[in-house]
Design a protein that fits this description.
Blueprint: H1 2-25, E1 41-43, E2 46-48, E3 53-54, E4 60-61, E5 69-77, E6 82-94, E7 101-105, E8 114-121, E9 124-131, E10 134-143, E11 146-155, E12 158-168
Antiparallel strand pairs: 1-2, 3-4, 5-6, 5-12, 6-7, 7-8, 8-9, 9-10, 10-11, 11-12
């Protein structure tokens, strides 16, 4: 009887040890209780957001940080000389039902000039626009309260490049 009890106890301990190792070795589903919003998907417990959204659960529109006014200035170079610093503000507006697109108003300090902006990442965008004989295209990024843009302008037959730095106000 003592042998039977020893065999039984040894068997139970072996099964318990095997069960514990097996349980600990199982890969747990880290996405089991993760709910990603706005079309995001879970990968290893973290949300991977669709373009235009960010945050732990993809709950924030990326463009929200852009939709405001920025006051600053640009420096442009003509082929023959520098235009110097030109101060003006720009304003970003939403485009309904499109989380990755915005409109930038007062581009180049002209109320009639606007550009369509397309988010490339949560903090950067590309843009293009035209008004009469002026076309422009470039990219921009935001960091904290600062907006930086670099762009190319074609004015009739004269091409030039510009840099803009503005602060949120």
């Amino acid at each position: 009887m003592k042998s039977f009890n020893k065999i039984l106890i040894t068997s139970l301990l072996t099964l318990s040890a095997f069960g514990s190792v097996t349980y600990m070795a199982c890969k747990k589903d880290r996405c089991n209780n993760v709910a990603c919003l706005n079309g995001g998907s879970c990968d290893n417990g973290n949300c991977v957001c669709t373009p235009g959204f960010e945050g732990n659960r993809c709950e924030t529109l990326s463009r929200t940080k852009f939709i405001t006014n920025f006051n600053g200035g640009d420096s442009c170079s003509y082929p023959t000389d520098s235009l110097g610093l030109h101060n003006y503000g720009v304003k970003f507006l939403t485009i309904a039902n499109n989380p990755t697109t915005m409109t930038m108003r007062n581009f180049l300090g002209n109320p009639d000039d606007s550009a369509t902006c397309y988010l490339q990442s949560p903090d950067s965008f590309i843009f293009n626009g035209a008004n009469n004989s002026v076309t422009y295209r470039g990219y921009g990024k935001i960091s904290n309260d600062s907006l930086y843009m670099k762009y190319h302008v074609q004015y009739d037959t004269i091409p030039f490049d510009c840099h803009y730095l503005g602060l949120r106000y």
